[in-house]
From TrEMBL, chain B:
Top EC class of this enzyme: transferase
Species for this entry: Gluconobacter aidae
Family as reported in the entry's similarity comment: Belongs to the thiolase-like superfamily. Beta-ketoacyl-ACP synthases family.
Active site per UniProt: C177 (for beta-ketoacyl synthase activity)
UniProt name for this protein: 3-oxoacyl-[acyl-carrier-protein] synthase 2
Length: 79, 428
């Protein structure tokens, strides 16, 4: 797993208070990890802060799973 | 109260919960209170050395079993950061009260007949402070989505209703330091009028932060002369008093319509015996000479007590904040009780826990119920040299054993808002 993936996972565990084993790439923040819409807003902010990236609202709306977040951030960092 | 609107519905207290500088827990707080312990110490929530007032009554951290605050025992870790501390403390007291009452709505009708009215004087002050720093440092887009629901006063009521499924009236009182009494009194009326059969009511406060202490310092309301001797700082009616001591915590009761409580065999702490309110229409922070507003609030409470007189009242839990206003309340109580003042006991429990602002009236109403139950009047600590004499026994230094059937509690708030509530022994 990449450094980015590790860090994303850590942020999710911390913010949603879920067990690390549940934070699989396909896990949906809302359906699998107990987040509500406000939690996902806060998660995106935490990603922005941790990775020094801007995630516009329309992009944030498409980030539904752990993998979505990792892919988006990796793409931004590669650009 | 007369007329048909209330159908003679009586309101009793079937659950109590307290978070105070003496302990987390209604009974441990009460035990320490009547032992004469003080919950006042140097402020540790932040470094107070820049401010003239440096002592307060902070809720102690520690294991729940020892009366300390272990937040994860009350609020799941992942939810804690979505709430200001005043919500944490309010929920801890409310959960105690609900569990103490044993009330668990079984069906939708029960849920819809159970409401919540828990207020606060100030709300999420530390949250607002932190949020404004985020915005002023150019990071407005980073402001937490939980900023607003963390600071809003009615969110204790909101969170509690979500936790237990209470779908009745969901409300919150905001009347500064009178909040707790107004919440219990107003919630009782909702039950009397049939809007609910059960109401969880009270107040919570957590304003011991730099902004809160600095604000009350600027208003010249806080004690500044006992920073080196914190337990001596809160001294209601004493000639050396020099301002109030900020406290934090929460008090919550479960109010229940009498027949509802009887049907389920609930334990009954006491009955709401009367409730009265008034406004000073005088000054934003100071009561008028003679404290006519306090007099009228007590009179109004007696008026709708169903026939009680001043001769029936055995104990007054005073507002008594350790400020100049103490003697004005004393004037009003003496005038109100007349000849009956001679047999009255009156104490200020703020001498031990400080002034819990929006939680004060609720915590003090619970002390009245415990005083009635145990036949013990809690003391006024530090009343070494009363600024003036009175025929009223102000229970200096040590608790007294005394039969108490009826107690009255006063709370007054900035803006000139006054509330008095009468608690009485439950009799069929």
């Amino acid at each position: 797993m990449s450094d980015i993936a590790d860090k994303v996972k850590k942020i999710v565990v911390e913010h949603l208070g879920v067990d690390e084993s549940k934070v699989t790439p396909d896990a949906s923040f809302i359906d699998d990890l107990g987040a509500d819409s406000l939690d996902t807003v806060e998660l995106v902010m935490a990603f922005e802060e941790a990775f020094s990236v801007e995630i516009p609202e329309d992009a944030a709306e498409k980030i539904a799973t752990v993998k979505d977040a990792i892919d988006y951030i990796e793409k931004q960092k590669a650009a | 109260m007369s007329g048909t609107a209330t159908n003679g519905r009586r309101v009793v207290v079937t659950g109590i919960g307290v978070v105070s500088p003496l302990a987390v827990g209604a009974e441990l707080t009460w035990k320490r209170l009547i032992e004469g312990q003080s919950g006042i110490g140097r402020i540790t929530h932040f470094d107070p050395s820049e401010l003239p007032a440096q002592v307060a009554g902070q809720v102690p951290d520690g294991p729940t079993a020892e009366g300390g605050l272990t937040l994860s025992d009350w609020v799941p870790v992942k939810d804690q950061k979505k709430m200001d501390r005043f919500i944490h403390l309010g929920l801890a007291a409310a959960i105690q009260a609900v569990e103490d009452s044993g009330w668990t709505p079984e069906d939708e009708d029960d849920r819809c007949a159970t409401g919540v009215m828990i207020g606060s004087g100030i709300g999420g002050l530390q949250t607002i402070y932190d949020g404004s720093l985020t915005v002023s440092s150019g990071k407005a887009r980073r402001l937490s989505p939980f900023f607003i629901p963390s600071a809003l006063i009615n969110l204790i009521s909101g969170h509690l209703s979500i936790r237990y499924g209470f779908k009745g009236p969901n409300h919150a009182v905001v009347t500064a330091c009178a909040t707790g009494v107004h919440a219990i009194g107003d919630a009782s009326r909702l039950i009397q009028y049939g809007d609910a059969d059960v109401m969880v009511a009270g107040g919570a406060e957590a304003a011991i932060c730099s902004l809160g202490i600095a604000g009350f310092c600027s208003a010249r309301a806080l004690s500044t002369g006992s920073n080196d001797d914190p337990t001596k700082a809160s001294r209601p009616w004493d000639k050396d008093r020099d301002g109030f001591i900020m406290g934090e915590g929460a008090g919550v009761v479960v109010l229940e319509e009498l027949e509802h409580a009887r049907r389920r065999g609930a334990k009954i702490y006491g009955e709401i015996g009367g409730y009265g309110m008034s406004g000073d229409a005088y000054h934003i922070t100071a009561p008028a000479e003679g404290h006519n507003g306090a007099f009228r609030a007590m009179k109004a409470a007696l008026r709708n007590s169903g026939g009680l007189t001043t001769a029936d009242i055995d104990y007054v839990n005073a507002h008594g904040t350790s400020t100049m206003a103490d003697d004005l309340e004393l004037d009003a109580v003496e005038r109100f009780f007349g000849d009956d003042a001679k047999r009255l006991a009156m104490s200020s429990t703020k001498s031990a826990i400080g002034h819990l602002l929006g939680a004060a009236g609720a915590v003090e109403a619970i002390f009245c119920l415990q005083a009635i139950r145990d036949g013990i009047v809690p003391p006024t600590l530090n009343l070494d040299n009363p600024a003036r004499d009175s025929v009223i026994d102000r229970v200096a230094h040590v608790a007294q054993q005394r039969k108490i059937d009826v107690a009255l509690s006063n709370s007054f708030g900035f803006g000139g808002t006054n509330a008095s509530i009468i608690l009485k022994r439950f009799k069929d």
